[in-house]
Structure formats: C-alpha cells, structure tokens
Amino acid sequence: MADYSQLYDAILNGDHRLAAEVTKAALEAQADPSELIAKYMIPAMNEVGNRFACNEYFVPELLIAARAMKASLELLTPLLAAGGAKRAGRVVIGTVKGDLHDIGKNLVASMLEGAGFEVIDLGVDVPLEKFVESAREKEGTIVAMSALLTTTMTNMKSVIEALQSAGLRDKVRVMVGGAPLTPQFASQIGADGYSENATEAVALARKLAAELATSA
Ligand code: B1M
C-alpha cells in the first residue's frame, strides 16, 4: 500500500475535510480499509491520547480529532460491513453507562456486521437495564460491552450481575473490550471473553456463537 501518512496527520490535527479527502483518494487507489485503520488511524488516535495525557492537547482537540476519525470511518465502515449475507448470530453492543467513547465500539460493530452478525447497537452511556432488555428479546444473544474509562469499566460487572438476576446469564454470552481492559479484568467480572481489537472481537464472537448454538 502507498504511504497515507497524510491521513495520520489529518486526524492528529483534527482536519476532518483533509481526512475524508485522503481516505477517498486512498480508496480510489484500492487501498485496504482495514490497513488504513490499523496503520494510520488508530495510531493517530493513540497519539492524540498521549498528547492529552501530557497536557499538550485538551478536550477540544480530542473532539476535533474524533470528528476527523469519524469522517474517515464513515467512508470505510460500509466497506468493512459489506458482504455479511448469512446470519452468524445476534449481538447487542453498547458503550457502558457513563462512557461516551464510541469510535472503537462502532468499529467492532461494523466488523461484526461484515462477518454476518445481526448487530443491535445501543449506542453510548447505555444503562444496564437496556442491555438486559435487549438480551431478553432473543435467547442466544451475545452481549458486547465497550468501555474506555477506568471509571466506567466497572459498570460491566453490574450488567453481568443484572443478567444473572434476570435469569438470563446462562442463555447469553458476554464479551468485553476497550483500551483499559485486560483479559484478567474480563475474567474477574465473569465475562465469557475479552478481545483487544475489532478483528479479535469477530473471532471471539464466532466462538461464543458456536457455544450458544451447541448449548441451545
Ligand atoms: Co477520552 N479518554 N475522555 N475522549 N479519549 C481516553 C480514553 C483517555 C485514555 C485519554 C488519555 O488520558 N490518554 C482517557 C481515559 C483515562 C482513563 O480512564 N484511564 C480519556 C478521558 C480522561 C476522557 C474524559 C474524562 C476527558 C475529560 O472530559 N476531562 C472524557 C470522558 C467523557 C465520557 O466518556 N464520559 C473524554 C472524552 C472524550 C471525547 C468525547 C472528547 C472523545 C471521544 C469521542 C467519541 O468516541 N465519539 C475522546 C477520545 C477521542 C479519546 C481518545 C484520544 C481516543 C479514543 C479512540 O477513539 N481511540 C482516548 C485515548 C486513547 O484511547 N489512546 C481517550 C480509537 C479507537 C479505534 O480505539 O476506542 O480503544 P478504542 O477501540 C479499540 C479497542 O479498544 C477495541 O477495539 C477497538 C478497535 O481496535 N475495543 C473493543 C473497543 N471496544 C471494544 C469492545 C469489544 C472488543 C474490542 O467487545 C465488545
């Protein structure tokens, strides 16, 4: 693939017009959407995070970087989601209560759609009742939760406990992800699986869907 470091710079500098322009040009040149995301876009957001952590960037810079990331993702995610004809399973996904970060969650949702899953996206700041209601609608659902803050990741445990209280825990599978999480944390809170990125999330969802199919 050609060099698209202009896309990295556009996101880092919060230039959404340039981000969209470079993305369009890259797609016209047959660039691989997943590679653009992994090689330029996620590293740019990580650098935005580093600059925020050392007080070089503040919330406005995070917001404009996120807008640039989204401008580019809008062009790429339909391509990631294309082709999922057969239903691989049902996934209810959301960012947990108190947390507004949705870029990673949206990426995971698009990749799951692309892999043939029916995806119900509950959005951000999702109260636990909403996860439980959506899981209740159909047995054999995968409940997928994202969190980007150390202060909100603990809300995942409350959702798992609520699923238990509602008598649904053994009828669903729970998968979790997001930058501050670890596999140890996932197992401590009683999740069925953790994945570090969107590609791994698809593999995990396939495994959990197979488990649900055999336990039905
Ligand atoms: Co915020 N923010 N933010 N932020 N933000 C972080 C997360 C932070 C690490 C920055 C930093 O300090 N370095 C820090 C958290 C610190 C902590 O908790 N330890 C932080 C903070 C502090 C905050 C605020 C509190 C700032 C403030 O107001 N003072 C505030 C909180 C608001 C709230 O949620 N209540 C806040 C706000 C925001 C914005 C709204 C401005 C914006 C989000 C815009 C949006 O999402 N629509 C924002 C952004 C952009 C970031 C950073 C810079 C980038 C996040 C991102 O989109 N990354 C972030 C720093 C960082 O992550 N390095 C930061 C790109 C995305 C593709 O990656 O989301 O990690 P990610 O998703 C990955 C994996 O994690 C995984 O797959 C994805 C694709 O590979 N994954 C899953 C995610 N979910 C998954 C689910 C799965 C499986 C895998 O299964 C279900």
What does this structure look like?
The protein has 216 residues and is of the alpha/beta class. It is 56% helix and 12% strand. The chain has 9 helices and 5 strands; from the N terminus they run ααααβαβαβαβαβα. It has helices at residues 5-12, 16-28, 33-53, 59-81, 103-114, 128-137, 155-165, 183-188, 198-215, and strands spanning 89-95, 117-121, 141-146, 173-177, 193-194. The protein has a 5-stranded parallel beta sheet, sandwiched between helices. The chain is globular. The mean pLDDT is 94. Bound molecules: CO-5-methoxybenzimidazolylcobamide (B1M). CO-5-methoxybenzimidazolylcobamide binds at residues 42, 45-46, 48-49, 52-53, 59, 62-63, 65-66, 98-105, 107-108, 144-146, 148-150, 175-180, 195, 197-198, 201.
Defining traits:
globular, binds CO-5-methoxybenzimidazolylcobamide, 12% strand, 5 strands, alpha/beta, 216 residues, five-stranded parallel β-sheet
